[in-house]
Write a structure and sequence with these properties.
Shape: globular
Largest sheet: 2 strands, antiparallel
Order of helices and strands: HHHHHEEHHHHHHHHH
Radius of gyration: 20 Å
Structural class: mainly alpha
Distance between the termini: 28 Å
Number of helices: 14
Strand content: under 5%
């Protein structure tokens, strides 16, 4: 999936909620608080099912590994990626194959992912004052200016926080080849984001976001995440109850948060030696195809 905004948002929301839960190890909470940016990097990284369980056990068994805390933060973020993928890939696959799929320069543009990202910008990141909530309520020219300002602000933050890569000077060709192989191209071009942010299609907004039940601010899980984000105190019992009350009738985003918390709980059980990595794998849905959760569109 290319919707990095949604991936980052759910990583942050799961972290907020897990910091309140009594059954999440203190070490996990410290790692996630100390290395938030690393966890966000994990949240946009694929294939967490291949190494997450074993990596948690490694961090537990090798306290001498000075990179251990950052490795664990990376895994925690990657588990949130896996959760939202399992819920949203069937949706995105459906719309990518639908008759309204858009092709630009020979590439299929999955606009559903862009609409999801823009809704998350409005519902989640506006609270942190990253952009004006009125972005969607202005004239077309002002919308474009607002979106450009959002991108400039975000880019400035990235430049300020950016870490440099340290090359292997003695084996620079091999080092560069490994680096290039590890980078996945961001396939959706920014002009598509700008175009849709400036002039969203009401019909597509309804089809991609309303009919799919992507995000409901009133769902208990989401409501608690926003309360924490605003600096309010939330108890472990409240979060645990929200997890329990999140069902198939809840919105996709809330269900993805719940599943991610269940993944974090499984990782916690590995860390506490309650289960082995092998025993944890079914709880992490390892070996279960992501597209096994089929999306059935609402019939009109």
């Amino acid at each position: 999936m290319s919707e990095h905004i949604t991936h980052t948002a759910i990583c942050d929301d799961v972290r907020r909620l897990c910091l309140c839960l009594d059954d999440v190890p203190t070490f996990f909470k410290k790692v996630w608080s100390d290395h938030t940016d690393v966890s966000r990097l994990g949240s946009v990284t694929r294939h967490a099912d291949r190494w997450s369980a074993d990596l948690v056990a490694h961090v537990r068994d090798h306290p001498e590994d000075t990179d251990g805390p950052r490795k664990l933060a990376f895994v925690l973020g990657a588990l949130t990626h896996r959760s939202i993928d399992r819920h949203m890939k069937p949706v995105f696959t459906y719309f990518k194959q639908a008759i309204d799929a858009r092709t630009i320069d020979g590439s299929v543009i999955n606009e559903c992912t862009v609409y999801c990202d823009l809704l998350i910008l409005k519902e989640v990141f506006s609270i942190d004052h990253l952009f004006s909530e009125s972005l969607f309520d202005q004239t077309l020219s002002r919308k474009r200016e607002a979106f450009h300002e959002l991108m400039r602000t975000t880019w400035q933050r990235i430049l300020i926080q950016m870490h440099t890569f340290k090359p292997d000077d003695d084996h620079v060709h091999e080092w560069l080849s490994r680096l290039f192989r590890g980078i996945q191209d961001f396939s959706i071009r920014m002009e598509i984001y700008e175009e849709i942010a400036a002039n969203p299609d009401p019909e597509k907004w309804r089809r991609y976001l309303v009919e799919t039940r992507f995000y409901h601010p009133t769902d208990p899980m989401i409501r608690l995440a926003r309360q924490i984000q605003r600096g309010q105190t939330v108890s472990s019992q409240e979060v645990a109850q929200a997890v329990e009350n999140t069902t198939a009738d809840s919105c996709i985003y809330a269900r993805a948060i719940k599943r991610a918390i269940e993944y974090i709980r499984a990782a916690s059980a590995i860390y506490r030696r309650e289960i082995t990595p092998e025993q944890a794998k079914p709880r992490l849905d390892i070996g279960v195809p992501e597209l096994s959760m089929a999306y059935v569109p609402t019939r009109r």
